[in-house]
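Supplementary notes for students who missed Thursday's class. We covered one full example, reproduced here. Read the sequence, then the structure, then the short commentary at the end.
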Amino acid sequence: MNLKPHPKTPHITIRPATSMDVSHLSPSKMGVCMMFVIKGIVVGISNLYFNVTVSLGRIITSIPQEIQVFSPLSLTPKEIWLVHKATFKEPALIFYSNKILY
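Structure (token representation):
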């Protein structure tokens, strides 16, 4: 299969999956397919589409899919000590238009 990925922006990198990437999948779930690993490089939105060349040079192109890259999850404080039966709830942050709303 000559399946080629085409990311529209440099926000993501994509590569074919190796056997180490899919070792947790059972062969019955994989079937006949091709898997890729996508890694976010920059926070933002990118589009990704694939194309494949079939018989007689005909090119089939997929519908573009939107990929959203978020910043890594970080919890504050990094460490917390709780007494027996105590609870701690992390405050929720909502990100909108590059501003933090509490």
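Commentary. Strands lie at 3-7, 12-16, 36-40, 44-53, 59-61, 65-69, 94-96, 99-101. Confidence is low (pLDDT under 50) at residues 97-102. If anything here is unclear, bring it to office hours.
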